[in-house]
Amino acid sequence: MDASEAAPARDADLRARLAAGDDDALGEIYDMYAPLVHGLARRVTGDAEAARDVTQEVFVGLWERPLAFDPERGSLRGWLATLAHRRAVDWVRREARRRRPPPEDADRTGPGGADEAVLAGELASGVKRSLNALSPPLRDALELAYYRGLTYREVAVALGIPEGTAKSRIRSALAQLGRRLESEGLFP
Amino acid sequence: MSEDRHPAASGALAAWALDACPSDEATVIGEHLSACGPCSREAGRLRDTAGLLAAAVAVRPPPRLRESVLAAARRSRPGTSAGSALDAGAAATATAGMVAGAVAGAVPAEDLAGAYAEQVAGMDRLLGTLTAAHWRTPVPRYASVLDLVAHLTGNDAAFAADLGLPAGRAGGAREAWYAQAGAVVRGVSADARLLDRRASLAGAERVPASGRVALVQRAFETWTHADDIRAALGRPAEPPPGEHLRFVVELGTGLLPRALRALGRHHPGRTARLLLTGPGAGEWLVPLAPGEGPGLPDVTVIASAEDFCRLLADRIAPARFPHRTEGDRALADDLLRAAATLGCD
What we know:
Chain A is mainly alpha-helical and about 190 residues long. Chain A is about 70% helix and about 0% strand. The N and C termini of chain B lie far apart (about 45 Å).
């Protein structure tokens, strides 16, 4: 399909431009992916300031080390989401160590609850559909792990299930989600 | 534990892809992934799925964030912006500029240019943090950081001249170095064909080499000297990404047969196998005399790719180089001694 073939080539081209010091390329990437990076950071941290910091760290990090992104191993979207998630999770775990529980607000209970302008693209609504099609036990495990930044051990405690079960629910949830997204044509 | 061996098979990899493993487990899995192709590809796929989960919660960032992010980026590594030679067209030309017989294989010129650009950016960040006292600090082989940076500028200028690129400009040590290194980055990024020109390697003998090989050496030398400065200031080393270590290993293995002969320790008809681990991992067959192709290995040397690069830089002495040998140990010793002669000052 056109779209799935164009994306890796475009990603590789953007990477080359970043490596060559072309800051216009960084602006283009920001315009494409800042909502994703910022939205994810906002969801995981539940903190507006932390979300801004994470967003800045992610894009500056990409600018400083563009070749750390390897187009052979996944998409630029996936890479930026990975960086954003990791930094957001680091923030959550640092906060947890300071014994300040992350704020609970409606924004964090699940997709669709945000009071900010949620971007309702075809992709986002397809992902939400696929997520809502998961059985509740699987969806809970996946959402706690990904959107709340819990480890599988913390997921086990939160849901009152053994650690092995938490791990296998996360695995099944991600696998089922991948298959559904594939059948919706959202995931090559 | 079996799941430490192949986390893809056990479910741990899915948790890892969501950053949901405790840090000790994540470290073990990360190490496994750097060495296991199938698990690493599966991890990439799982992370891409997770990336779509991120798309479901996208929200518009505050409008002012854009400018503050781009400004922070420019502060960390100056960009070239529109109108310069490094526009999209030039970058696309560099991307398309696949030239056979790169360092050893066919590495896109853009990747080599990028590797050097990244080292230049790293060195520039480092120099930006130095105080006046730091600049006067002695480093091994140099009276001061200032002298070392001047030496680096000289080697960059020689390379720029080989390729017909403009000279830098006079100024303070940092500005002069950055101007020269920047001229090289811009020149080779804008026209990858420059790298097909002949150049000579930095070092006493000025060994002739292709521009591509010489550019890898520039990246390698810049990294090595940045680590020299960090070590002198008591800061931790910052190894380049594995991909760049691989370029350096390619550079070194390509030069080894001649270095063996220069030491009088070449072995016609014999071959060594280098099995390097960690970031930059890979396998290289090295003929132990010039002008020969590799045969079946007579000896295998197993070591970390990063350590091997430091051996090539003569920052680890052969006698202290951590490695294992399988096969003819005397051949391995000669190989390591020759490797340590390849570093430049």
